[in-house]
Amino acid sequence: MLTNSAERMKVNIFMTFDELSEYILVTLDRHELIVKVLYYRAEKDEITDIDLDKFEVVKSFTCANLEEAELKYSEWNDLRIAVSMISEYLKNQN
Hints:
The structure is a single chain. Helix content is about 30%, strand content about 35%. By secondary structure, the protein is α+β, with helices and mostly antiparallel strands. The chain has a four-stranded antiparallel β-sheet with strand order 1-2-3-4. β2 (about 20-30) and β3 form a beta hairpin. It is globular, with a radius of gyration of 14 Å. The termini are far apart.
């Protein structure tokens, strides 16, 4: 069992600060072998801490092994890929 959270999780966050703050979070759980892309858009004038409960899971993938998980994390960690996933997700929400 992994005891160090840095050994268990790999995380990257992208933030925008235009009119509204938007956050894209890409995570890799090395223990569960799950890669996720999460999204949160702050409300107008909201000052926010990074609260994972506010994020919506846009895409999640369970991998067969750590090598596949690392590869999927690297792929989804590309901002162009993550933004296209968010765009598609937001289109389907409306």
